[in-house]
Amino acid sequence: MKPGLDDLYAQTLARSERLPYFLDIISTIALLQEPLPTSGIAELLGIRIYEVVNVLVNLQAIIQVPGTDNMPAIPPSATFLPPKVDQADSLHIRVIIGTGLFERSESDSATRLGREALGGHPDSPDLVHALADAIYSRATHTASLMDLEEAIFLYRKALPLRRSPHADRWLSLNNLGTALLVRYRHTGTMADLEEVISLHREALELCPSPHPDRSTSLNNLGCALDRYRRTGTMADLEEVISLHREALDLRPSPCPDRSSSLNDLGDGLLDRHLRTGTIDDLEEAISLYREALELQPSPHPDRSASLNNLGNALLDHYRCTGTIADLEEAIPLHREALELRPSSHPDRSSSLNNLGHALLVRYRRTGTMPDLEEAISLLREALELRPLPHPDRSPSVNDLASALLDRYLHTGAMTDLEEAISLYREAVELQPSPHPNRSSSLNNLGKTLLDRFRRTGTVADLEEAVSLYREALELRPSPHPDPSSSLNNLGNSLLECYRRTGIMADLEEAISLYREALKLRPSSHPHRSLSLNNLCNALLDLHRRTGTMADLEHAISLHREVLELRPPPHPYRSSSLNNLGHSLLDHYRRTANMADLEEAISLHREVLELRPSPHPYRSSSLNNLANSLLDRYRRTGITADLEEVVLLYREALELRPSPHPDRSTSLNEPGVSLLDRYRHTGTNADLEEVICLHREALTLQPPPHPDRSVSLNKLGNSLLDRYRLTGSMVDLEEDVSLHREALELRPSPHPRRSYSLRSLSVSLRYMYKETCALPHLREAITRCEELLSLLSPHDAVQRSDRAACLDDLASLLQKNFSATRRQEDLTRIKMLKEEASRLSPSASST
Q1: The dihedral of CA 457, 458, 460, 462: what is its sign?
Q2: pLDDT tens-digit profile of 105-143?
Q3: Prediction pTM value
Q4: How far apart are CA 472 and CA 465, in angstroms?
Q5: Which of 102, 154, 424, 679 pairs as cysteine with 445 (C-beta 3.0–4.6 A)?
Q6: Cβ–Cβ under 8 Å, residues 318 and 327
């Protein structure tokens, strides 16, 4: 006998004893030496066959509750046998029921018997309801939507046959509500959910205090108000918590259902925490889950569920606080839950998913690859246990895709990325509108398409991602509990669009979306820091485009706020340190304030300490620290900084072997520092290595890779340096060709077009010097004129760049005058020099 089931058996028998001839039939079966067919039992007792079948179908509830299709049910203890049956006969009952009438499958047998009985008595409420129970039980085993639909049809048929004050109306209301709730979770049809709530409200009204079933109705209604997760209505969530609190009060220890109410109340508080960020709700949920677990020692049949609940809550606590002890406790809890759910257990897939997810979280903290590989293995097994049309297949599809995406980001294996995209597409197809989780799957698919765009530059992926994010946002109107995630995701995709095309409307919409998301995440919200980060990044882009110092100052202020929200040991503290370091470096480059640069270096050193090998983002931190030190070297000339920069870039490159998706970036970075060292020392080996690194980077960025133009420019610059050293026209010609291609990849209004114009203009000047071919000079003048048009005379940031451009253009026109003697060139040269003089620092200070 399993602990905790005695009360369930008692309740089932108590309901069955009201059936006509129940005790006579069950006693007869017990006393028979050989199994009799239902007709034989009816003839022996002088009753009708359907009355025998009715008793047996109802009795089936006792058999099926603790068993599965592959594991026989554990029969009730002798304590609860009917009074006319002694303990010696109990085994005989079990043998006859188990091997005579229900040999193949309890639910299949009960369904067959129920149909047989109902055929002769179609309006019997007990038989209709009993058949519905049997078919519903089969639906829970097979995930058959057809069985579920038939069960709902029969429950509906039974309900009007049990009008109030029928003693079993409460049972019919609850069972119909439960079946409809299952269908809602499969289809997302709001009408089902609304009906479920209505049914359970009526059932609750039939159980005024101190009715013994009131706590059950309170729990059922609380579960039905799952509507909150769809609509975001806080009133529903508050009612859920209130209902479960009342149910818990009605189930003091040692009530066998207390653990169930503890878990349900914990779930409600956890949902409220996720909505409001109130840590007290999370702490109380953990406390409730711990008590529930204590009430379910092994081998309690529900212990695995409580282990999972506590493990998931501890993971949430870890995400809020970064306390590694929470994560380390959660993983063993999920392992124990999995051990309690062997291959035949119907909930094994849930435990596989939960353990896989916990290991994935630890991998993201530590970078330990065995955790990631085990997570993928567990999530694959979970998915195999949820073949179509399993109602939980789509969550498993999403979870496995997420783990594969992590492995792609670590290794760069395109097969993982392609499989993740394929899985996310399946999840979207499995969740047609109005499925409540469709928006989440749309967001996930959008994210992976963005990752593929960043790798391949395929614009169709970017455009599809934007479209998916817009649909997801439409599915989360206010007061949906999580519109902020969709706002942020759409903002991220539009920011990518802006960085590709330079269209200001995309950047402005992204900023607007980020601001709206931030409003929905007040100071107590657990994800406020994410929204702050996104807004900061967009403001930095805006600053880099317009030069407005207020945007940069605001970004720095916001990054400092984020850092305060992530004190040690918060798992995302390193990201916040990184972002603040980036913005301070931008501030230094604008103001030349050494304090900004020194703080940026200090922050990036702290980040690197928080990301020891094999942390998946260590390579990024190595690059960021190197970038800051390179700026200090260029300011101070301290050779030690340059040498450290080279070492840091080399370590980052080693951590990104092919086909790592960021290898091309790491190839370009050391190239920059080696070029600086070559210019400092004149060591030809450095220059040759630079060219080799940039060529490899370019090979890894075939069209239409979004960063190809960067590699084209860098390779062109290094070839120009070698031309200056050797005079090789081959290098100069390739340099011009590379800069032309880069410029074509940066059409107006691309934010980096001005850089390509400047680089091409310089290269064409050298080409004219070598060839004296006027077309080269004229093109150089044209490129320089376009660059000048992009540099506003009224922008303080662009003031020095415009002055330099004016001087360059004047020099080019002077060469043109020397070759052509065009008088208008002299007029323009005079005007250009006058404006350059007005823009000079000495002129602006007077």
Answers
A1: negative
A2: 456 766 777 777 677 677 788 888 888 888 888 888 777
A3: 0.74
A4: 10
A5: 424
A6: yes
